[in-house]
Design goal:
The chain is α/β, with parallel strands linked by helices. The chain has a single domain, classed as Uracil-DNA glycosylase-like domain (Uracil-DNA Glycosylase, subunit E). It has nine helices and six strands, in the order ααββααβαβαββααα. It has a six-stranded mixed beta sheet, sandwiched between helices. The longest helix has 17 residues. The protein starts with 16 loop residues before the first helix and ends with a helix.
Amino acid sequence: MLVVVAPDPDLPTDARPEVRAGDLAALEARITSCRRCPRLVTWREQVAAEKRAAYSDQEYWGRPVPGFGDPGARIAVVGLAPAAHGANRTGRMFTGDRSGDWLYRAMHRAGLANQAESVSADDGLALNGAWVTSPVKCAPPANKPTAQERNTCAPFLREELQLLADVAVVVALGGFGHAEMARIMEISPRPRFGHGSEATAPDGRVLLGCYHVSQQNTFTGRLTEDMLDAVFARAVELSRPGARAGLSEA
């Protein structure tokens, strides 16, 4: 699921995308084999076995879902957890459901994705300068992971962000992802979540709040395409080299 660009011989060895990709692939292997949370393991496998009628002829992924994108990303998009019949089915974040339709259309318009469609893990989607992930790697019942499940998964997300050393901006989709990223980024005092909210971490990385692309927001008009585009436009602006230096001087 990694997209690796050509190596730059002028970069230090540990900063080259192909080296990061190897580290991220090793992390991905550990994530996808995790069985630490009994409730989540039971649920994800039950959903995969029973299936939704519309997907009865498909083989579900039914495992933890790792992050996806460009190892040299300057923008990270953080959701909540895989959807039961979306990423838990396809094996790629925000793939195969309405939420993903909204997200990747917006990322395509922002120049962060090569296509607007995200239907399966082998559909050719590639991200440019962006990475998509979640605080909880398994689909939870009712889309509500427990605090213990969140904490068990947190080391994976923390390591992921450490490996994505170029990330300058994190777009948090929804309050859950925003709260977890504020904690991991050590932002104090803890920022309030809101659509378009901005908070800066001690290391200069910026946390942007965005309403989640769930149907309860997109179908009701709480989140519009213009609102989503505005957040990604701001993320692209802040992710440009030198933008963080400007923030620290302000």
